[in-house]
Amino acid sequence: MATATVTYPEASERRRQQRAWYFYDWANSAYVTTVLTVLFSPYLASVAETAACGAPGTPERPCTQMLRIVGIPVSPGSLPLYVITATSLLSALLLPFVGAMADRSGHKKNLLGALAWIGAAATTSMVFVAGTNWLLGVVLLFVANLCLASSLVVYDSILCDIATPDERDQVSSRGWAFGYLGGGLLLALNLALVQGHELVGLTTQQAVRLSLASAGLWWAAFTIIPVVRLYNRPPIAVVAESGNAARQTLGQLLATLREARAYPMTLLFLVAYLFFNDGVQTVIYASSIYSSSQLGLGQNVLIATILLVQFVAFGGALLFGRIAGRFGSWRTILVALWVWIAIVVTAYFLPARQVAPVLALGVAIGVVLGGTQALSRSLYSQIVPKGREAEYFSLYQACERGMSWFGTLVFGLVHQITHSYRPAIVALVFFFVVGFVLLLLVDPRRAVRDAGNEQPAVL
């Protein structure tokens, strides 16, 4: 295919827009860390348990009553996991339509802002989730998660407009680094508020609710920067379709899916990403239960490890961006996957009730976490056809969110069979090995050439 002719802004203007673009990573990471990773799931479970049993459950006296959702019995403690799973599966179906809409619109930054501010409003409204009002919490979590996923499709696609092929590894890495720093900073402040709530005259529940609201306000406020400073660009490679906007969007999406067979290396990368990213996400999800239930470590150690990973990942993303600048993102990701395999195997041998080895492993996770995610994004941006970036990034996000349950399923099944989390954690090696083998089969130069894009100097 012919190489796409793309006009980028001048270097000084590109840097200005790149700095503005970084701030959306900074903005939405506050929601990911404070709400999704740490505070909202246990809080929503406690509200649901209060509704079902009159009070939150405890390890000694767990809540055994069920909630009824359209006649289906649901354990209060499992409610947040079911909501996240449902939104992940719905996202996998919805995001391709969002991507097609973004590619046709020519107003990507406006769409980014609209999605972000709806999600931020839902997050800020979590301050009203109290007492037994679990249903409000479910609706708000559902809306916020869908808006986050949709906004990331638009955000990731903008990378192709503001960075040349040779700049993307570094720009993507800086964005991820900014996100880890911003998310970690607000999380540290919120955890300090929750831990020291009595010093400011608040109950634990009030401190948690204020922390949730702060994540929404942070998300909304810092989204203003990219929306104001980024430029919209006219769409290219638009499929001619008659009818209303919905029909045109559907026609664009169907055309993209039909043409996807012309990019076998891009599709192979997506399958590889599906596996190794599922391994990464499962390690993150499983780390808390592994530390507490298998290693016997307390909440304070878990909090310290989470914060350590966040801030080390800031430096790790920047480091991997520099390494990729010399050796290429494809080779650097392959090396990172071997590091992940070593991390998972090491976790199997961690001694119980020993804090130092857990913190050391947290440092290793932080170093490789940001680099794996940032370089996957930048490499993928090189191998998607011009004018279809949002649609292809919607497939990227759909692979991440629609299949992110497979690793947790394997983790749960192995634990159920063996009654131990040690074989469950080491079973995750499978995802990294399969991802490594599939990524090894990807020819990145051919993928760039097939997509009709400019070849970067290092890939």
TrEMBL record:
Annotated TM spans: 21-40, 79-98, 110-128, 134-155, 176-195, 207-228, 267-289, 301-320, 332-350, 356-380, 401-418, 424-442
Name assigned to this protein: UMF1 family MFS transporter
SUPFAM superfamilies, per the entry: MFS general substrate transporter (SSF103473)
Subcellular localization(s) per the UniProt record: Cell membrane
Major facilitator superfamily (MFS) profile domain location: 34-447
Domain of life: Bacteria
Keyword annotations: Membrane, Transmembrane, Transmembrane helix, Transport
Pfam families: ATG22
Main location per the UniProt record: membrane
A GO term, aspect molecular function: transmembrane transporter activity
Organism: Thermasporomyces composti
GO cellular component: a single term: plasma membrane
Residues in coiled coil: none
Membrane topology type: Multi-pass membrane protein
Organismal lineage: Bacteria, Bacillati, Actinomycetota, Actinomycetes, Propionibacteriales
InterPro entries: Atg22-like, ATG22/LtaA_families, MFS_dom, MFS_trans_sf
UniProt entry tagged with the keyword Transport: yes
Keyword Transport: yes
